[in-house]
Amino acid sequence: MGGEDAASQSLLSNVTDSSVNLNETKAIQRRKPQQRARAVQEQQRESDISDSEPPFVEQEVTFKYVLLLLATYLGIGTLWFFLVRNQIDGKKTNGVVDAIYLCVVTMTTVGYGDLVPHSTLAKILACIYVFAGMALVGLVLSKAADYMVEKQEIVLVRAMHFKKNLNAAEILMEAETNKVRYKFLMTALVLLVLIIVGICFLCVVEEMEFIDAFYCVCSTITTLGYGDESFSSGVGRLFAIFWILSSTVCVAQFFLYLAELYTETRKRALVKWVLTRKLTASDLEAADLDHDDAVSAAEFILFKLKEMGKICEEDILVLMERFKTLDVDHSGGLTAADLLTS
Prior knowledge:
By secondary structure, the protein is mostly helical.
C-alpha cells in the first residue's frame, strides 16, 4: 500500500506540475497575443526583404567603392609622376604608362628600381605615395579580393561536387560550412593561373628564359623586387599595371586564408575533442554553477562552450549583469513588463 500511495502521489505530482505549466503557458499566450502577432509580422517582413534583395548587393557596393577609390588614387599618382617625369631616372617608354607603372610598383612595394626618383620633390612624392598605397592595399583591396573570391566560390563548390548532384540549397550549405576552405582553394587556383600567365608573358613578350621569368614572377608577387629582372617594354609595363596589382593582392589573401584555415582546423579539432571526451566528477562540479549537485542543460551548454573557447567567464559575467539590469522586478525571468520599465 505504501508503494501504491507513493506511486499515486508521484503521478498526481506530475499531473499537477503539468497542469500548472499548461495554465502558465495559456496565461502567457493570453497575455501576449498582440506581441506575438507583431513579431510574426516583423519576421515576415524581414523574410520578404531578404528574399527580394540580391545576395551580393552589399559586396557589390563595396567593390564599386573600392574601384572608384583605386581609380582616384592611381589617377592622382599618375598625374604626380607624369608631371615630374623628368626628375625620374631609369629606362623609360611611354610617359603615361611609365607613370601608372611606377604608381603600381610603388603602392605594392615591389620597387624594382628600374624607375627611381632622383630629385627632392620626386622623392617626397614617392614617400607619400608608398604609405598611402600600403594602406590602400592592406585595408581596401583585400575587400575587393574577398568579393571576387566569394563570387566564384559557388562555382568551385559545384565543380568539386559535380558527381553528387547537389541542389542549390545543399550547395549553399556546403559553401557556408567550409567557407574558409573553399576561399583558400579558390585563391590558390587564381594565384596559380596568375603565376602561369606572368611566366608566359615574360617568356614571350619580354623574351626572358624560363628560369629568369619564374624568378621575376616570384620576386614580384612576394614584393621582393630585386630589380635585376623586370618589365622593360611599353607593352610589358602596361600588362604589369594589372598583373602586379592582382597577383600581389592574391598572394596576400592566399596567406591570410591559409592562416584562417589552420586556425579553423585547430578549432574544429578542439570542438570534436570536447564533444567526444568523457566527463569526470570534477567536470560535473565545475559545470554545476548553482551548486545544487545537478547539472542542467543550460549549465552543461555553458560549460562546453567555455571548454571550446567560444565564450569565457568574463562574457558570462557581462551577460548576467545585463540580465540583472533588465530584470526590474527581480523575479529571475524577463517579462514584457520588465522590458517596458527598463
